[in-house]
Specification:
Helices cover about 60% and strands about 10% of the residues. The protein is built from 36 helices and 17 strands. The protein binds adenosine-5'-diphosphate and magnesium ion.
Length: about 900
């Protein structure tokens, strides 16, 4: 037995060799061995199913763990007073060799068995030392996250309760392991992150009673089917924050224990007292914390790994280990007695099985072994103190206690940290984190949307600005191109026309000659004026003489008888005088008209202008420069006065008759007077009634010299201002006469008069067809050959008048088909002169173009003839708004124009 015990003890002894020099060294050594929590490999480990060995133990053999044999210390109680006297003559049954950690159990006076323990505590060992040797390493392990068990085993009265449960109220040195353990625990935990809670139970006859709530006397053991963990959810759990409340709890528990035992008619030595200290500590995990990082979000704060270590310190004050018959269990039935010790004997069996590495450990045989399954062969650090008394009277019980301790020393535990994720804490932290992120995300989302909106708005503004600028620039560039385009076309056309003109030019107007002529005319006029005055005085003298003769004749007639010969003579004289007078009168008329003509030629050769321009353009023209100039106005008045005077003096009929005078000079002067009279509207009717129009046309027909024709044409032009006269002119073949005159004229002024006359006729709706048929348009266009601006102006006016009438007739549906102007080839000239420098020409042509453009039938010719560009130009550049608008309107209303503009990519 001794050798066996010795042998059995030898194995652990070897393991303890290094821990022999003092408790401090042992403690530090214990700690160094029990510091797997700092090892990264042990960071996350679930509590494994506790097991007292066998198949259950195999479940965590593959996992990391620290081997931790059950530590066993033996404590010897000092002799009690009773023993002092009763055993006075006997030596103690045990001899302790604490320095060798050996105990000698005397068999007799000469023989003893020697047992080795992890600690051998003599009767002098202080409570403090006992705590430090037995419990403190376990408490430290519990604080590190391991389960721990401190258990006292021994015969009743050997000091189990003394060792574990003394409160030390009278003498603090007496404080037992429970009190000192809690002191250490409380000193090492943080109330912010850790929590300590305590249950205090009693196990009696397989009933678990709550010492903190005596009414709760049958607490079931609950095993987690997955982990095998054992718990007592029905037990009262009191949170401990300070030592005082713990002491109070122990007192209450003790009171309740006494009360319960009284009630059950038992003693505390029959029951097992179990103190469970639950330690929950929060620790921060290492680098291998599970990452829930999402993407690259810089806003995410990686939460530290929240771990919680849930460990349990179980301090068990076992019932007395003595056999029942010896402890005097009077009053109890045998079955009851068996039941009382069922748990204890089951514990012994389990420890035996574990010590022998038996395949079956009867853990489930009792509630105590179920509760302690983690303490023996499980994952807890377990320290057992076996208490013995010195009395040789109890050698048997002492021996069995020692042997129990020896077997317990063979039980190997695999210490494992009880660490797990603090899912609640993690969840709480993550929820806070998620809420923060949600808020942040919403804020960022809002910022983002605002930013997008702002950028969008800015971009739209920029785009519209760029578009606007681009459109402006494009429009400008387009206009520039169009203008250049039109300019170049126009230049080409001008070049073409000037080339043609170069070929056709001959005998043009000689300005110099005219000037010379005018100079001599002034002198001539004063000479004629002088002669006229002479003639007038001569005529007056003659009239006086005639009067004298008349009175003499009357006297002569009275005395008839005075003789007929005298009468006849006088009669003959009279006739001579009358003839003479007639001749003089003719001469006077001639001189007067000559004078008139000279005056006109000198002062203002264009005496017809006023009539020719006036009232002919439907208000287009402002009053002529002549009308505005006082000098011209006075000249005009003088002409009027002279002509009127002449007409009064001579008589219109007489003057008209002179148009047919044999004398060419007379005819010239007469026609000038008539023309001058015709310039006045008041005279026109009289002139026509008196046959003046016929006479003037006759002058053209007679093919008189050019002066006569020029003046006659001027007079006709003036008469042609009157609508009634226009028809008369046409009826009397005026168009062909004017055409003929135009064809043969060399003087630009003649052409101007003819053009003016035709231009007036062009304004008559009724005469359109006839005018054209008789060659009026061609004649009008023919006059432009001289290139004189006055002529061109008249031509432009005529064309404008004609186009206007045509347009009017077309609108009324009377006229269909292309414009006669286009048919007779007027378009090239129109286009060429459309932008003439002279405003009257330009405006007439612009108007004409607008009239022509109003009728789609002309559009094609206008496009091909280049008139479209002029219309475009007019629509943009014309200084008169009404013409601009008209041009724009016509451009828009014509499909042909629009198509052409589109084709040429001209935006209109
Ligand atoms: P058990 O709980 O094992 O039945 P107790 O702890 O009640 O034994 O001890 C029985 C008696 O012995 C008590 O009076 C106790 O004070 C005393 N006693 C036990 N151990 C010691 C000790 N080491 N030193 C002094 N007195 C002790
Ligand atoms: Mg006791």
């Amino acid at each position: 037995m001794a050798s066996s015990a010795h042998r059995n003890g030898g194995v652990p002894r070897g393991a303890l060799k290094a821990q022999t020099s003092g408790s401090n060294a042992r403690q530090s050594s214990f700690k160094s061995r029990l510091a797997p929590s700092s090892s990264p490999g042990s960071a996350v480990r679930r509590s494994s199913p506790a097991s007292l060995g066998g198949g259950g133990g195999g479940s965590f053999k593959n996992q990391d763990g620290v081997p931790g044999r059950v530590r066993v210390a033996i404590r010897l109680r000092p002799r009690s007073a009773e023993e002092m006297s009763a055993d006075a003559d006997f030596a103690d049954c045990v001899e302790l060799q604490p320095e060798l950690k050996r105990l000698k159990l005397r068999k007799n006076n000469w023989d003893a068995d020697t047992y080795e323990f992890d600690e051998v505590l003599t009767e002098y060992a202080s409570q403090k030392r006992v705590y430090e040797v037995v419990a403190k390493p376990v408490v430290e392990s519990v604080l590190d996250g391991y389960n721990g068990t401190v258990m006292a085993y021994g015969q009743t009265g050997t000091g189990k309760t003394f060792t574990l449960g003394r409160l030390g109220e009278e003498d603090t040195a007496d404080r037992g392991i429970m009190v000192r353990s809690m002191e250490d625990v409380l000193a090492n935990v943080s109330p912010d992150t850790d929590s300590i809670s305590v249950s205090y139970l009693q196990l009696y006859m397989e009933y678990i009673q709550d010492l903190l709530d005596p009414s709760n006397d049958n607490i079931p053991i609950v095993e987690d089917p997955k982990t095998g963990d054992v718990s007592l959810p029905g037990a009262t759990l009191v949170e401990i924050n300070d030592q005082q409340s713990f002491l109070e709890l122990l007192r209450i528990g003790e009171t309740h224990r006494i009360a319960a035992n009284t009630k059950l008619n038992t003693e505390s030595s029959r029951s097992h007292a179990i103190l469970m200290v639950h330690v929950k500590r929060s620790v921060t995990g290492g680098e291998d914390a599970p990452s829930i990082e999402n993407g690259n979000s810089s806003h995410f704060i990686k939460p530290s790994k929240p771990l919680v270590r849930k460990s349990k310190l179980v301090i068990v004050d076992l019932a007395g280990s003595e056999r029942i018959h010896k402890s005097g269990s009077e009053g109890h039935m045998l079955e009851e007695a068996k039941s009382i010790n069922l748990s204890l004997s089951a514990l012994g069996k389990c420890i035996n099985a574990l010590a022998e590495n038996s395949s079956h450990v009867p853990v489930r045989d009792s509630k105590l072994t179920r509760l302690l399954r983690d303490s023996f062969g499980g994952t807890a650090r377990t320290s057992l103190v076996v208490t013995i008394g010195p009395s040789p009277r109890h050698r048997g019980e002492t021996t069995s206690t020692i042997l129990f301790g020896q077997r317990a020393m063979k039980v190997e535990n695999m210490l494992k940290i009880k660490e797990e994720f603090d899912y609640k804490s993690l969840s709480r932290k993550l929820e806070i984190q998620v809420d923060k992120l949600v808020v942040e995300n919403e804020r960022l989302q809002k910022d983002f949307e605002d930013e997008v909106e702002r950028i969008n708005l800015e971009a739209q503004n920029r785009i519209s600005e760029v578009e606007r600028n681009f459109a402006d620039a494009l429009e400008k560039e387009k206009l520039k191109c169009q203008m250049e385009y039109m300019e170049s076309i126009k230049e080409l056309e001008e070049r073409m026309v000037s080339n043609q003109r170069k070929h056709n030019r001959d005998g043009f107007f000689d300005d110099k000659h005219i000037e010379e002529g005018l100079g001599s005319s002034v002198e001539e006029a004063s000479e004629i004026r002088r002669q006229l005055n002479d003639e007038i005085s001569r005529r007056k003298a003659l009239e006086e003489e005639i009067n004298n003769l008349k009175s003499r004749l009357a006297q002569c007639l009275q005395p008839r008888e005075n003789g007929g010969g005298e009468i006849l003579r006088l009669h003959k004289d009279l006739e001579d005088e009358v003839h003479e007078r007639k001749k003089l009168e003719e001469e006077v008329i001639m001189l007067q008209s000559q004078l008139l003509q000279m005056t006109l030629d000198t002062d203002q050769p264009r005496y017809l202008d006023r009539g020719a321009y006036r009232d002919s353009f439907n208000g287009l023209n402002s009053p002529t420069s002549q009308d505005q100039n006082p000098h011209y106005r006075s000249n005009g008045n003088r002409q009027k006065a002279s002509a009127a005077t002449l007409s009064e003096q001579v008589g219109l009929q007489k003057i008209l008759s002179l148009l047919e005078s044999d004398d060419a000079n007379v005819r010239i002067h007469a026609v000038k007077v008539v023309a001058n009279l015709a310039a006045e509207e008041v005279n026109q009717e009289r002139i026509v009634e008196a046959g003046g129009l016929t006479s003037l046309l006759m002058l053209l027909r007679r093919y008189e010299d050019e002066t006569v024709r020029r003046v006659a044409a001027g007079a006709i032009a003036n008469l042609a201002m009157n609508e009634a006269n226009q028809e008369l002119i046409m009826v009397q073949g005026g168009i062909s006469l004017l055409s003929m005159t135009a064809a043969n004229a060399e003087d630009p002024q003649t052409l101007r008069m003819v053009a003016g006359a035709i231009a007036n006729l062009c304004g008559n709706d009724k005469l359109q067809q006839k005018l054209r048929t008789e060659g009026g348009i061609r004649a009008l266009l023919g006059t432009v050959r001289c290139g004189h601006p006055d002529v061109l102006s008249q031509v432009a006016r005529g064309i404008a008048n004609f186009a206007k009438c045509e347009s009017r007739l077309a609108t009324q549906g009377i006229r269909t088909g292309r414009s006669f102007l286009i048919e007779d080839g007027a378009l090239p000239w129109i286009v060429h002169n459309a932008n003439d420098e002279a405003a009257p020409i330009r405006r007439h042509i612009e108007l004409a173009l607008c009239h022509l453009a109003q009728h789609e039938v002309n559009a094609k010719d206008m496009v091909s003839g280049g008139a479209l560009w002029e219309l475009v130009r007019i629509s943009r550049d014309c200084s008169r708004e009404d013409i601009r608008n008209l041009a724009r309107k016509t451009l828009n209303s014509s499909q042909t124009f629009r198509a052409e503009l589109r084709r040429l990519r001209v935006e209109y």
